[in-house]
Write the structure tokens for this entry.
Amino acid sequence: MSRSLDDILRRVVAKGFPELKRLRIAIEFGELDPDTCFFYDQEAGRYRITVNDILRGAPTRALEGGIAHELAHIVHDSRLGRRQRELALARYARSAAYRMRDERSTDMRQIERGYGPELLAFLSFARTLRIRFTRAHGLVLSEISARLRLRPVTASESAGGRQQ
Ligand SMILES: [Zn+2]
């Protein structure tokens, strides 16, 4: 377990997702598909967030953005019963349309919890790693900026992974 990842996780939970304090959530860096930056799974009531090794050098703010996204999934999924959860997972695996709706509503939930700027920071940093996100993955930069009523992120900021 990475100490600093754990610190970031605890902080994001306390600030944006306090109802998750009662859950057991572990976090660690690990090997994931190149296009999967963050991933969570659940077994016997324990949650585990895996952060792709390629993000070891990522700024804290970008990590907060990705972690808040996983927590926004967990806050929703943890309310489902076991059967409902299995159905949701099966639909997620099978249907691109379902995945897209799920990812976009997860981003929306994250913004409601105050972690929109960090989501922007994450997407900007991902660009520096040449990872591109489309509408199929969730909200795109311009949609998030519009929701935050920020000016659009400029190309130079995106390239540097900076976000104010
Ligand atoms: Zn997601």
Q: What stands out?
A: The longest helix spans residues 60-77. Confidence is low (pLDDT under 50) at residues 160-164. The chain has one domain: 3-160.
